[in-house]
């Protein structure tokens, strides 16, 4: 088990007080004797508390970072050497003492960023261009990413002489174990910034709000991510920016529902219209673009005629080819319109008499219903039906 307080609390060496306190509270809730009676957990809690005692005290932390002992002895004295130290000694630690891995760079690539963008169904179907306001790290305008105040520059660390690492020697029953560890004085960079930039505190970057233009391609759906290369977080030391990912979320629509690249909608017609047939005018999805002022009305078809044939049954589906959502790789889905026949629930005396006359004329006055097989037959059922015909 490591006895390095930074590793015990799982925080970076440049962590601020709030980060250290948050990490300690999280671990304390897990290992505190009141919630975890395991003796190993109690021992772990002592180590965590010891680490927090060092890192929460500026003087003790500074003493530890300089390679000294904040308590006047060795941190975790009596605990001996760690298994990692032994492995380093046998599998590269001693070789590293001679050759070293070198200082870690101050300039590193930034992290990727992710934001969510809500769009309407028509915008997702046909594409749209949006302006986004994002808060990300950008290169510090004062030091241009150097981290040092104007007119100054980093100097070589006197502790590690620019190597970024220092050798530690421990004696054990195996003999003398020599390992390399990051220099506590320069935190492994090999250099120290004596006069940090007042704008970025030596990090080389600051947070800023900026406006980006993102083009959403036609055919995107909820969960689709649009990548904007090098528009994410600028890295430490003014390093190259990561990527920005825009995750699409498509809002629900009052008329259409989407299934892949197909659109579905339902239209309700009276019983008489279903029996006699009729023509209904329905809006297209493109009509939303016109309503939002994205395209002129004369450039797209905003409505179409749906023919309801005489004798149409409730639940009948009409497939209109090529009226769905464009695909990301070309093509376009279909629009499936389900016709629902509405049966009247309130009839006056004259209407009821007309219905009775119609029923009598059709010989339907004493209808008790006809039983038919229900549900959807499986593959073997359909195969059997094909041979029976």
CATH topology of the largest domain: HSP40/DNAj peptide-binding domain
Low-confidence runs of at least 5 consecutive residues:
72-100, 376-384
Q: Specify the oligomeric state.
A: single chain
Q: What about the largest sheet?
A: 4 strands, mixed
Which percent bin holds the helix content?
A: 25-40%
Task: Indicate the structural class.
Answer: alpha+beta
Helical stretch tally: 10
Mean pLDDT across residues: 84
Query: Going by CATH, what is the homologous superfamily of the largest domain?
Result: Urease metallochaperone UreE, N-terminal domain
Q: Termini separation (Å)?
A: 77 Å
- What is the domain tally? 3
List the helices and strands in order: HHHHHEHEEEEEEEEEEHEHEEEHH
CATH class of the largest domain: Mainly Beta
Radius of gyration: 36 Å
Return the CATH architecture of the largest domain.
Sandwich
Strand content: 25-35%
The dominant shape is elongated
Report strand order across the widest sheet.
10-11-15-14
Tally the beta strands.
15
Notes on the structure:
The chain is α+β, with helices and mostly antiparallel strands and 389 residues long. Helix content is 26%, strand content 25%. It has helices at residues 5-9, 17-31, 39-55, 58-65, 83-99, 121-126, 271-276, 286-291, 349-361, 379-388; strands at residues 113-119, 128-139, 155-156, 165-172, 175-182, 191-192, 205-216, 225-228, 244-250, 257-259, 262-270, 278-283, 303-308, 316-320, 335-342. The protein has 3 domains: 1-80, Helix Hairpins (Orthogonal Bundle), CATH 1.10.287.110; 113-152 and 194-250, Urease metallochaperone UreE, N-terminal domain (HSP40/DNAj peptide-binding domain); 257-369, Urease metallochaperone UreE, N-terminal domain (HSP40/DNAj peptide-binding domain). The strands form 6 sheets. Strands 10-11-15-14 form a 4-stranded mixed sheet. Strands 1-9-8 form a 3-stranded mixed sheet. Strands 2-7 form a two-stranded antiparallel sheet. The model is unreliable at 72-100 and 376-384 (pLDDT under 50). α2 runs antiparallel to α3 (39-55).
